[in-house]
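Hi U.,

Before I forget, here's the chain from the pilot set. I'm dumping it here mostly so it's searchable later in email.
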Amino acid sequence: MTTLKANFVIIIIVIHTNTAYYDRMNSQKLDHIDRLILQALQQDSSISQRDLADLVGVSQNACWRRLQNLNKQGVVNGSVAKIDRKKLGLDLVVFVMVRTRKHSTEWLKLFRNAVLNTPEIADVFRIAGDYDYMLKVVTKDMASYDAVYQRLIEQIELEAVTSYFAMESIAENRPLAI
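Structure:
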């Protein structure tokens, strides 16, 4: 009789633990296993679900549920391949600081459209300080960068543009600290 009671108590605890996990996931709090999953995916998003489950120490079903929740919550937004830009001849990285006099919704819409439709612009940030925006342009050479610059200033009015040319990449596309 005591064995049945002990088993019954264990079942209740397991169900409660699972419910607590899903409550945490819905509020986007990550536990140790979630962090391990995210770290592994940042290193190799092509890892099989079975290998990922083994790596983080959970069953394949538990790993699948966690991945589904991380996707549902927007913590994971797809997966991409890391590409060696130099092997594609994309040797020039330019950080472009942009200042504008205009801050209207209409101007911002034009600016977003211009930068998002320029494939050489890899990253765009609205920043605080002397400039309003910082762009990361990845291209093959100075002539290619100048073509990007000319296309950009034809599409949108800018007050000032200052370009900083990277001489060396010490660390690029590093995984997030989770």
